[in-house]
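Duplicate of #3305? Posting structure anyway:
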């Protein structure tokens, strides 16, 4: 009996001693992971990019348990891969290895002596993550590829050669279609090819700031050593993976949010409906991840800001110094006025158009004047005038009470992404509107049924101030379905495609005048026509967080060539409460056959 027990114990003892000598075996690793419930660990869920219990990245090279996915199955499959083919697995999934081995110490002595794959080692050596910055390149609402800005990561530090380097880590798609309908379908439904790249940051900074004229904000993040290493290794895991880019559910901002959630899992709570680039910045600020803020201002933006801040008389004297070679002394100016005047001169001679019209000798003389008069000890930061963090949330739900002499109605409007012209646009480059996927329905008192007022696929309006120093055009575009008034001022629904161009001018830092000429095509099942809409208006920023928007518009060519409708609208908006906007509006419509006064009382919730 004793011999029989010894014969059974010897093999078991051999297996136990072998596992102990070489590390943990596969089954023990799985059991330990299950005991610790690592499949529920928020960092593990972030490594898999899980939303609503489903991975957002579907590539089978990334999700090993495709077809029977669960966080636990994926963890077991990952451990199985490490024990079956350690070298290849550690090269493919270094972040998963780093995370799992931290908790269950499954690595073996033999494995530790094996070299990592050459490319991964090169990445570790030459792409340092001493600091991680969240980058936000400001919006250009008239550009489909940058209408909401762009967010990405910047990793910097000293590489293996002790050279300071800085890299962009960015996810994007290429918009290679000029067909708006195809672009919307691909971007919202079928998906587009996403590209995940690591490249020198200086290249991106120059492109956004110098070529596209966008401000580039840099937010240094407070992330510990373990999480910085985890993020660095996870970025490697994504390099060759097929990632489907969808505007509304998995864009540059969404991926950036999931990567940063490795450091703070609370960020995933912000992936509610639509994640915009600004949402990522606000989420990082909300959860205390931002420790420093920096900004690279585009020259045009800085010049426009200085045009608004400098006193008109002083600005005129600086312009005379540049354009007419008139003498001007900075010595009698107060320190703050002097600093603004010198900065204004500095940005004037940086402007490409102005610079090209100055001789080298004249340019050198003006540069010397700047160098002689500038006082860098005086605090002066143009970035204080605008900050993306201070914008309201960009998903908006609006409820409106609309009434005239004949009818009362309730409008419900939902805007998944961006902002209205009447909203709080003080933190944007200029007065603008960007509407993506807006849906508005109306319940009328008379008919007692819902009617679709509008379905906006994509619309923008940008009122960039123009001046003799920085001449600019304003523009507009609309694509969607909306109600259009006939001669009797009755509404009829049409699919509408239109675009326009105009000019905007700042007559005061709080008063913007604008004009626009829009042309379009409207069609429905029984009618269709081309039309033109010239308009003029003003936007006035008033005290106590308010704004007034006044616009007069003519609509010509609707229904027939002789049909002209006039519309005068006045709207007051107040946005003094965070993520709420209240507005009152009065509209007067007039045609050859009818006239109508309409009043509106509305409240918007931003989330």
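Output from current build:
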């Amino acid at each position: 009996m004793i011999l029989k027990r010894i014969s059974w114990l010897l093999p078991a003892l051999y297996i136990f001693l072998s596992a102990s000598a070489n590390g943990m075996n596969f089954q023990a690793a799985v059991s330990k992971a299950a005991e610790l419930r690592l499949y529920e660990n928020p960092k593990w869920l972030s490594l898999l990019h899980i939303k609503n219990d489903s991975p957002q990245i579907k590539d089978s090279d990334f999700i090993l348990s495709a077809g029977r996915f669960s966080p636990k199955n994926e963890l077991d499959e990952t451990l199985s891969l490490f024990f079956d083919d350690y070298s290849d697995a550690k090269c493919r999934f270094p972040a998963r290895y780093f995370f799992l081995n931290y908790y269950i110490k499954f690595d073996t002595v033999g494995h530790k002596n094996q070299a990592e794959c050459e490319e991964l080692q090169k990445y570790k050596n030459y792409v340092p993550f001493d600091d991680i910055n969240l980058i936000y390149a400001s919006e250009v609402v008239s550009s489909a590829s940058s209408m909401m800005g762009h967010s990405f990561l910047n990793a910097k530090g000293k590489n293996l050669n002790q050279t300071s380097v800085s890299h962009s880590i960015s996810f994007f798609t290429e918009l290679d279609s000029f067909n708006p309908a195809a672009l919307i379908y691909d971007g919202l439904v079928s998906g587009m090819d996403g590209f995940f790249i690591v490249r020198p940051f200086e290249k991106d900074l120059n492109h956004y700031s110098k070529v596209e004229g966008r401000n580039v904000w840099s937010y240094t993040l407070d992330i510990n050593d373990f999480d910085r290493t985890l993020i660095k290794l996870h970025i490697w895991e994504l390099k060759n993976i097929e990632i489907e880019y969808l505007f509304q559910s998995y864009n540059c901002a969404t991926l950036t949010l999931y990567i940063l959630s490795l450091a703070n899992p609370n960020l995933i709570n912000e992936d509610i409906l639509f994640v915009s680039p600004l949402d990522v910045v606000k989420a990082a600020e909300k959860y205390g991840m931002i420790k420093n803020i920096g900004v690279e201002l585009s020259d045009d933006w800085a010049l426009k800001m200085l045009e608004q801040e400098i006193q008109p008389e002083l600005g005129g004297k600086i312009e005379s110094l540049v354009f007419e070679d008139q003498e001007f002394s900075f010595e009698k100016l107060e320190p703050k006025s002097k600093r603004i005047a010198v900065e204004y001169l500095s940005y004037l001679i940086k402007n490409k158009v102005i610079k090209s019209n100055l001789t080298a000798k004249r340019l050198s003389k003006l540069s010397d004047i700047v160098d002689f008069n500038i006082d860098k000890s005086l605090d002066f930061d143009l970035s204080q005038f605008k900050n993306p963090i201070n914008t309201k949330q960009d998903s908006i739900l609006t409820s409106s009470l609309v009434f005239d002499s004949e009818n009362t109605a309730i409008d419900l409007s939902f805007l998944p992404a961006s902002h209205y012209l009447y909203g709080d646009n003080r933190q944007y480059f200029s007065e603008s509107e960007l509407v993506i996927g807006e849906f508005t329905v109306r319940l009328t008192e008379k008919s007692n049924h819902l009617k679709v007022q509008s379905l906006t696929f994509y619309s923008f309006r940008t009122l960039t101030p123009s001046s003799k120093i920085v001449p600019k055009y304003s523009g507009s575009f609309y694509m969607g379905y909306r109600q259009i008034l006939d001669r009797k001022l009755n509404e009829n629904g049409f699919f509408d495609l239109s675009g326009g161009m105009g000019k905007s001018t700042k007559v005061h830092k709080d008063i913007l005048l604008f004009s626009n000429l829009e042309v379009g095509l409207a069609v429905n099942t029984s009618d269709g026509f081309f039309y033109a809409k010239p308009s003029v208006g003003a936007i006035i920023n008033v005290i106590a967080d308010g704004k007034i928007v006044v616009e007069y518009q003519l609509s010509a060519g609707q229904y027939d060539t002789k049909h002209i409708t006039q519309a005068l609208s006045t709207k007051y908006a107040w946005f003094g409460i965070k993520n709420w906007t209240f507005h009152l509006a009065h509209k007067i419509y007039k045609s050859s056959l009818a006239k109508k006064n309409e009043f509106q009382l509305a409240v918007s919730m931003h989330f």
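Confirmed duplicate; merging threads. The longest strand covers residues 491-508. The radius of gyration is 30 Å.
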